[in-house]
Each structure stands twice: as structure tokens, then as C-alpha cells.
Design goal:
alpha/beta, 17 helices, elongated
């Protein structure tokens, strides 16, 4: 029986509940809980073995068991761990008096094992927990069914857990984290590892999820694949766009790899389009031009290969450019609005970022034109949460409260692909398909990295990548380049956007070889 699976599919709470209900019709009661407990215990033993080089003697594990089925999973795990010779202490949440028959059976098994139990009263529990160091804490307080903030003694216990200096294994989701949105209302347990059951959850990978879930492993619980629906959300990965990373043929020239025009660089903001244009060039575009709304630079001293022109003098029609990247440092005057309208009217693949998004939010006519855009039709928006909030007429808090829903809404509203940047960047298509990115880190939280992403995506579009794969590939490569720099000792603190550019080139070449 295979309990573990590796997959990129992401399932909502409603989808997981439907899968559970379908599986329960063919399984004896308590089967899924027993399998979850076994999987959790195996994951715990793996962590302990790693900590002790295989010697689990005198290992001490604290198990927090909540009132629902998540608590039942924890109790099953406690029984297995105690049977493996681990010293196990179980803290049973006071609310656990009302329980399901399956959970009651799990509690009986745990009490019949060598595991010890402590009272749910916070003062007694605090004294017991602080009495000795723990090698591992298992969080089984609340799973995907909990939609309320942690409160009372469970909140106090979560605070106590977050103060401990040991690994924490969360069962299904860290208690206090919303499985669909990744939002923490108040507080949540910060886990170093999460073993999530049946299928992966979006909330583990975006918003607060990445700060609370740690390393995520999926335990499929041997559920028949036929019971799993087609997922509308998944994790980003090379497999989604790798077919476009190919060695270059010998018989090619600069025209074979497309031309990019970057529109931006109002007075005092020329650095933004320069970052985007340099990235487009280093990512493989054959030619790159910067179209300045004001007087153009004579040339880019650091990258003289770039052409600098006045944007109003450029012809966007007739596929003159393989991609238009509009917005980095564009400014907000009437000339900029006119440039955006010309860009929308063109038949070139189009990426809007930064000031282009702010102008769109202020000019409903631009939004209407974009939603009815003809020609090439490839259009990508790359907003950060504030820019998305302006376009959706929401607050930033409302956008971040459900990043997947916000990205989907904006994509459908404007008929575009949306890249909602942030921790666990969300890429959404017009049909509701969503991908959450897994690369990147706080190293990217610095000025100019969004310009680099825009230039990278524009370069892939110009080289003929379809818009969906271009968005996925650009976001993944952008984050992976930052990860490589951090791994080599550059960052995360103090990494600059310009340092990403050669790292992106190196990564693309390595993957295309």
C-alpha cells in the first residue's frame, strides 16, 4: 500500500472533503484516520532519524491532539511512535470531550500505548512542556476544517510551541493557517515540516503559508487516483514549460530570437526600463529597444547593445516587436496614457507592469480596450498586491485575504494572464486555471526585481513562447536565479535586482543545454 505521493496538484478544502466522502464509501470506518496516523508517525521518525543519525533512543516527542479528526490523526501517530520506543507525551485539547467514533477509537489506542497524557489546563501543560527539551513536536490541533482564529488554551499552546527550539511537524496544515488561502488570522503554529493528507493545499504555498508550513510532504493515503478530480490549481515547475528550453540551432541570427521593446523611463526613472531591457537581452532576445516617453538616453553605458529611442517615434504595429513590455518607470502623464493605448492597439504580445497598471486602474477606457484586445492576443499583467487592489477596486488586505481568487478575478475581468506577485506568486489564466510558484525568497524583496521579471517574461514572449508558458517560466526562473544566488552566499539580505540578470542567463543556459 502506497501512502505517499509526489504531485503538483493543489486541492481546495471542498475538493478534499469530496474526495474523503467518496473514499469513505469503500473503506471501513476509521481507515483514513489510521493511514494518516501511520504516515504522520513515519514522517516524525524520519525527522528524528535525521536529527540523531539513525539513533532514536531517548527521543522525546510532544503530540498536540485537538478536538476533531486532525486530533485523531495525532492520536494515531502517538500510538505508533510510542510503539516504536519513542517517549511520547500527549496534550489533549480540553474541547476534545465531544468527538467522532473514529477519533474515540484513536484515543483509546493512544491511551493503551506507552504514551503519557497531560491535562489540558494551560498552567499544568506549560510546566510539563517547559520541564524538559523536546526533540519534536507534532501539531494535530486543527486541520483544514478549522476556519476560526486560534483562541483560548489552544492559542496559548500554539504560542508555547512557537517558543520551543525544536522541529515541529504539522499534520495536514499548521494549526491557524487557512488551507485554501494561506492566511493566518491572529496567529498560527510555525512548523518546520508539514505532512498534508490526500492532496496538497494551496494555502501551504502562498501568503503566510511559506512562513508556517516549512517543508511540505504529501501523504496520498492510498486513495484511488480515480477519486481525485482534475485540479484547477497546481504548483509551478520545470515540467510545465521545459519544452521551450532547447539548445539553439547553428543556422540562426538575431532575428530568430525576437525583438523586445520596453516602454518606460520617465524623467528620474530610467533605471527601471534599463533593468527590464538588460534582462530581456541576457535572457536571449535578439534585439532590445527602450522607448522613453521623454528625451531618450543617448545610450546605456553599461549595456551599449540596447537601443534607446523616443517612444512616440516607434511603430508598434505590424509585429515590429516580438513583445512589448510597458510600464517600468513610465510615469503617469497624458503621453503615457496615449502610449499604452497604442500598445494595446498593436498586434504584438504585451506585458503590462508597474506604472502601466496604475494608469489602467485610473483609466477605465484602457481596461475596456485591453479586455477586447484583438491581434496577437497575448497579454500578461504582473501586479503586486497594491496594483492588483487598484485594478479590482479593493483594498490590499482584501486581495491578500484570498490571493488565488483575486488573481482569477482579475484574469477573467480583463481577459489576460495575471501574475500576482508576492510570497508564493500566483499565475492565473482567463479560464480559472491557477499555478502557485515555488521558487524565490525574501531576497527578491528589493527595488527593481519586478522590472527584471517583466523583462524576462517579455524576452520569452519575443522568442516565441506561448503566453501561459512564458508567464510560468519567467516567474520560476526569476525565483530560481535568486535562490541560486542565496545558495552561493549572495543574499538574501542586500541582494540587488541587477545581480539577478547574469544569474538568470546562467540558469537558462544550463537548463537549455
Amino acid at each position: 500500500m502506497t501512502l505517499f505521493a509526489t504531485a503538483t496538484a493543489l486541492y481546495s478544502i471542498a475538493e478534499i472533503r469530496a474526495i474523503e466522502a467518496a473514499a469513505a464509501t469503500t473503506l471501513p470506518p476509521g481507515t483514513l484516520m489510521a493511514r494518516a496516523g501511520q504516515a504522520a508517525a513515519s514522517a516524525a521518525l524520519t525527522i528524528l532519524n535525521h536529527l540523531s543519525d539513525g539513533d532514536t533512543a531517548h527521543r522525546r516527542v510532544l503530540v498536540l491532539a485537538g478536538p476533531g479528526n486532525n486530533g485523531g490523526d495525532a492520536l494515531e501517530a502517538a500510538a505508533h511512535l510510542a510503539g516504536s520506543g519513542i517517549e511520547v507525551l500527549v496534550w489533549l485539547a480540553p474541547e476534545a470531550a465531544s468527538t467522532s467514533p473514529e477519533r474515540a477509537q484513536a484515543a483509546a489506542r493512544a491511551r493503551n500505548s506507552a504514551a503519557r497524557f497531560i491535562d489540558g489546563a494551560t498552567s499544568m501543560a506549560t510546566a510539563a512542556i517547559n520541564a524538559a527539551p523536546w526533540n519534536l513536536i507534532v501539531d494535530g490541533l486543527f486541520g483544514i476544517g478549522s476556519t476560526r482564529p486560534l483562541a483560548g488554551v489552544c492559542r496559548e499552546m500554539a504560542q508555547l510551541v512557537n517558543q520551543q527550539n525544536c522541529p515541529v511537524l504539522a499534520l495536514d496544515v499548521p494549526s491557524g493557517l487557512h488551507a485554501d488561502t494561506g492566511v493566518v488570522d491572529g496567529m498560527a503554529i510555525r512548523a518546520s515540516h508539514t505532512i498534508t493528507f490526500i492532496g496538497d493545499k494551496p494555502g501551504l504555498h502562498t501568503a503566510d503559508g511559506r512562513d508556517h508550513a516549512g517543508e511540505v510532504e504529501v501523504a496520498a493515503l492510498a486513495i484511488a487516483p480515480a477519486l481525485l478530480p482534475q485540479a484547477s490549481a497546481q504548483l509551478n515547475g520545470l515540467h510545465l514549460f521545459a519544452r521551450h528550453l532547447q539548445p539553439r540551432r547553428q543556422n540562426t541570427h538575431k532575428g530568430s530570437y525576437g525583438s523586445v521593446a520596453v516602454l518606460g523611463g520617465a524623467t528620474g526613472m530610467s533605471g527601471a526600463p534599463i533593468l527590464a531591457a538588460r534582462t530581456a537581452l541576457h535572457a536571449g532576445a535578439g534585439r532590445v529597444t527602450i522607448g522613453f516617453p521623454d528625451t531618450p538616453l543617448a545610450y546605456d553605458g553599461g549595456q551599449p547593445e540596447l537601443m534607446c529611442r523616443r517612444a512616440q517615434d516607434m511603430d508598434f504595429m505590424g509585429l515590429a516587436f516580438g513583445a512589448l513590455v510597458a510600464g517600468p518607470g513610465l510615469g503617469s502623464d497624458s503621453d503615457s496614457v496615449e502610449l499604452l493605448q497604442r500598445a494595446i492597439d498593436s498586434d504584438s504580445p504585451l506585458l503590462f507592469d508597474a506604472d502601466a497598471l496604475n494608469l489602467m486602474a485610473a483609466e477605465p477606457e484602457l481596461q475596456s480596450a485591453l479586455a477586447t484586445r484583438s491581434g496577437a492576443g497575448a497579454t500578461i499583467l504582473t501586479p503586486h498586491p497594491l496594483e492588483a487592489a487598484r485594478l479590482l477596486d479593493m483594498t490590499v488586505a482584501e486581495v491578500q485575504a484570498d490571493r488565488l481568487a483575486s488573481a482569477r478575478q482579475l484574469a477573467a475581468q480583463l481577459g489576460v494572464i495575471v501574475v500576482l506577485k508576492g510570497s508564493g506568486t500566483v499565475i492565473a489564466a482567463q479560464d480559472g486555471s491557477v499555478v502557485i510558484n515555488v521558487t524565490g525568497s525574501p531576497a527578491l524583496a528589493t527595488a527593481g526585481t519586478g522590472d527584471v521579471l517583466a523583462g524576462l517574461c517579455g524576452s520569452l514572449l519575443a522568442q516565441g513562447w506561448p503566453e501561459w508558458e512564458a508567464a510560468l517560466g519567467a516567474v520560476w526562473l526569476h525565483g530560481a536565479a535568486a535562490d541560486a544566488l542565496v545558495a552561493s552566499g549572495t543574499g538574501p539580505i542586500g541582494l540587488t535586482a541587477g545581480e539577478l540578470i547574469p544569474a538568470i542567463r546562467k540558469l537558462i543556459n544550463a537548463l537549455s543545454a
